[in-house]
Amino acid sequence: MTKLRVHNLAISLDGFATGEGRTFEAPFGHAGMRLMGWFFPTRTFVQGTGHEDEAVGSGTTGVDDAFAARTHHGIGAEIMGRGKFGPQEGPWEDLEWEGWWGDEPPFHSPVVVLTHHERPDITLGETTFTFRDLPPAEALALAAELAGGLDVRLGGGPTTVREFLQADLVDEMHLVVSPVVLGRGVRLWDGLEGLEEQFDIASTASPSGVVHQIFTRRS
Amino acid sequence: MTKLRVHNLAISLDGFATGEGRTFEAPFGHAGMRLMGWFFPTRTFVQGTGHEDEAVGSGTTGVDDAFAARTHHGIGAEIMGRGKFGPQEGPWEDLEWEGWWGDEPPFHSPVVVLTHHERPDITLGETTFTFRDLPPAEALALAAELAGGLDVRLGGGPTTVREFLQADLVDEMHLVVSPVVLGRGVRLWDGLEGLEEQFDIASTASPSGVVHQIFTRRS
Which InterPro entries match (chains A, B) (predicted)? Predict the structure, then answer.
């Protein structure tokens, strides 16, 4: 049975998952890299992105990496919102933009990008991006088919995750709360009153200062 | 040197410290007791309120009580917002309301209640409530004098805590994040962007499901 899983969704103390003013130069807006500081030192990030070198070593293997490493286990496809693919809004002005990730995106699987403005597939390395205008349940059905029996990762951003939570389609969600008050941006929690009734919620504090929270859907 | 300390300030995952629709029957509005569930079993609560009996025993002494017990250590006075004293708004219609706590309030110290509508002092047991219309720094000066060299507790609610944080008067703050999405009520975090620059922030998860967070002002 395919599960829909959220991993490494980083939020601030005040619940913002991305900052205000996203641009090509500032993918997280005014948040900068403050929500992801816990992730970059991990072995999962360093080795997954090929950043391994003498300066950074091979990455940490502590609490943060234990959670980060689950990101890729048993995943056969990803669903992401258009905002994660790029900061553009409205119709595509050109098709030159192929995402933030260069020639070898770290997904290594099919990726369904949800957008009202469909465009042809893009294949980069082992990753194929497919652009579709679908409601959550149909997007999940497509991604599950592409995943070939493995799980589907719901990659964000916050607006997309919120829509799938509201549709009660999320099986597991891993949040990472960073000790930062962003003040503005896109909130994860809006419109989710009573979410705790659908999930068991467990928390672990990491020496890095973040708190990992795992939401597991009650069966 | 008198410190201003916040203890046991319970908030939801989405940052609400109290619910919507506060009344005499529902002191926390629609939040009910959901934010305080971790506190009631503790020895600090059970013994401090005289609820100790055969049914509840003498209270738990685990992680939650370790934090709760700090509430009373070295405190000589409390500051609270008028909303914590009662749900009324505007001028007092009568002076019969003397707070939620009966003849023996658990403060055992002077309490400065901040209100635009001053009224005569009330003494109940070892607690005297003094009603003043003062800005944060002056309220702290008064409470520090009443505390006689001990620390001052900032007792809430969220609007009051936020005002003292904005005035950079808080030395320590203990938050308790409950795994609940309230959706509406009074937020703690509004207007506090960048608060992390003033504090060291440490988190510990409790087996009860809450996360304790300690903010310590950088010297």
Answer: DHFR-like_dom_sf, RibDG_C, Riboflavin_Biosynth_HTPR
Domain boundaries, chain A: 4-76+153-217
ipTM for the whole complex: 0.92
| Interface residues of chain B, partner chain A, Cβ below 8 Å | 13-15, 179-184, 187, 189, 191-196, 201-205, 209-211, 213
Asked if the Cβ–Cβ distance from A181 to B203 is below 8 Å, we say no
Query: With contact defined as beta carbons under 8 Å apart, do B140 and B149 qualify?
Result: no
Cβ-based contacts of B184 with chain A (< 8 Å): 193
**CATH superfamily assigned to domain A4-76+153-217:** Dihydrofolate Reductase, subunit A (3.40.430.10)
- Please report the beta strands in chain A, taking only residues with DSSP state E, as ranges in sequence order: 4-12, 16-18, 75-81, 110-114, 122-124, 127-132, 151-154, 172-178, 186-187, 199-205, 211-217
Query: What share of chain A has pLDDT > 90, as a percent?
Result: 86
Which residue of B16, B203, B216 is the best one to mutate when testing the A interface, meaning the one whose CB has the most A CBs within 10 A?
A: B203
Residue A191 has pLDDT above 80, yes or no: yes
A178: closest CA of chain B, how far (Å) = 10
Which of A183, A202, A204 minimises the CB distance to B193? Answer: A183
